[in-house]
Amino acid sequence: MSPAPIRLLLVDDQALVRGAMGALLELEDDLVVAGEAGDGTTAAAEALRLSPDVCLMDIQMPGADGIAATRAIRTSSPGTRVLIVTTFARPGYLRAALEAGASGFVVKDAPAAQLADAVRRVHAGMRVVDPELAVASLAEGANPLTEREQQVLRLSADGRAVTQIAAEVFLSAGTVRNHLSSAIGKTGASDRAQAALIAREKGWI
User: What is the DSSP secondary-structure string of 81-140?
Assistant: First the structure.
């Protein structure tokens, strides 16, 4: 008897991407798509319901992003391994994903055969990381921003007022300004808009 196929959960906010990825992976005899999700919150719920072997996870999605979803899945469904598959090959994202419990990190332009092989290796308990990104991550160093600095900088990226950010995170306006000032200094930016841009490009937020 042949071994049971590796059951996959595909998570991406673009239905066309999920469909194309699923079609390619199901050409492999040992891979089968068990479910799909279009955001991080749904992904965690589907992982709990379906208990897939491997979850292929995008990073930037509405609601809970791929990092938060990875953390949730690894907590509630520890038998499911997570392979990040993203367009955003940023060192900060790699570090955050691995810290959240992901077993692998590859970019979406990887050949289908390479992606299928990454799935098999992750399922077998190995770690799979894009080699160029791994080198860049080592050169870049760790994310210098604290969790609070990441939070307020992320909220400020769309131009929200300090008072609005303060209300959302239950801090005083002065404390928010201090966090933003610290983040600006750590990123070497001239203002919070540039700081948010730099942090996003590096995958820190």
Answer: EEEEEES---HHHHHHHHHHT-SEEEETTS-HHHHHHHHHHHHTT--EE-HHHHHHHHHH
pTM above 0.70, yes or no: no
In DSSP terms, 106 is beta-bridged to 85
* CA 137 centroid distance within chain: 15
Contact assessment for residue 175 and residue 166, using Cβ atoms and an 8 Å cutoff:
yes
The pair of structure tokens assigned to 43 is: 């992904």
Q: Is the pLDDT of residue 36 over 60?
A: yes
pLDDT for the residue numbered 141: 60
Of all residues in the chain, what percent carry a pLDDT higher than 70? 92
DSSP-assigned letter for residue 58: -
Query: Of 142, 165, 151, 84, nearest to 118 (Cα)?
Result: 84
